[in-house]
Amino acid sequence: MKKTAIALMCLGCILFVFSPLTAQKIEDFVSSYTNQNGQKYMQPLGDAFGANLNSGWYHSARISTLGLHIYIGAELMVAQIGDKQKTFTATTEGSFYPETEIKAPTIFGNPDPVSVSNSIAGITYKFPGGMDVKMVPLVVPQVTVGSVLGTEASIRWVDFKIGKDLGKLSLMGVGVRHSISQYIPLIPVDLSVGFFMQNFKVGDIVKATSTFMGVQGSVKASILTVYGGIGYEKANIKINYTSDYGNISFNFDAQNKMRMNVGAAMNLLGLNIHADYNLATQNVLVLGVGLGF
């Protein structure tokens, strides 16, 4: 029980900004679902977390063909949780008759449970509430090094111990971008293509993988750069732990497929401050700051 409660609280602290809830209450919420209802209940988590992982990789499409360039910064990704992500169509399970559908909270929804009653049989089926989440933030450090023949590489890395029962939290992401505009003489904009992939783990309880590939474009005027891009993304989330209710396991793909973004960056004496907005199934706001040499 203690290990499970700590694990779920850890997951909550990492992924969410939510109203104060005890670890036991979070466990009660998640453990109440073990089948298709459970996947629908947890789906918004996968969508938000996967979208965050695939954001913030670039703030310009300009990649020099020669010379050493190093960028060291931090990216804050904030997935915004809309009303549609706070409810889902749930179906009563087990011996409850007749089978009934109802709009129930997702993990991001209202903390108050909802229920269905059969007055003839005198039984009630209760669906758990959620965490009342409005946004899902994620902060990662990032380093970019280039350029070799118009190619640069980026890396994200986080690794630290959570506790002896849970092991480590680790995030490793790598990406490569290549300049396309170098092959098109006199083109008025910078163009590049990129591929990025990441792995995220919390001990043996939470595992996530994501990939993103796309095309980026930008225009630079003095200290201001306007940039944007379009691409294809995917993410998979696995959650597995043991509680007093038995083994709980969820494995699902994020619904995000295509995304586009637009943003602006300001470069002043090596300091880069940038922001962009990503439009997809799951919208994400990105804020970043770093130093370029």
Can you give me a brief rundown of this structure?
The protein has 293 residues and is mainly β. Helix content is 14%, strand content 54%.
SSE map:
Elements: H1 2-15, H2 23-31, H3 36-53, E1 69-80, E2 87-91, E3 101-105, E4 114-118, E5 123-127, E6 135-148, E7 151-163, E8 167-179, E9 190-202, E10 206-221, E11 224-243, E12 246-253, E13 258-268, E14 271-279, E15 284-292
Antiparallel strand pairs: 1-6, 1-15, 2-3, 4-5, 6-7, 7-8, 8-9, 9-10, 10-11, 11-12, 11-13, 13-14, 14-15
Helix pairs in contact: 1-2
Report the end-to-end length measured between terminal Cα atoms.
50 Å
Number of domains: 2
Question: Helical proportion?
Answer: 10-25%
Tell me the Rg in angstroms. 22 Å
The ordered H/E elements are HHHEEEEEEEEEEEEEEE
Side by side, the strands of the main sheet go 1-6-7-8-9-10-11-13-14-15
Number of strands: 15
Average predicted local confidence, pLDDT: 85
Into which percentage range does the β-strand content fall?
over 45%
**Low-confidence region ranges:** 1-25
Estimate the global geometry from the Cα principal axes: elongated
Biggest sheet overview: 10 strands, antiparallel, barrel
| Helix count from the secondary structure assignment | 3
Specify the structural class. mainly beta
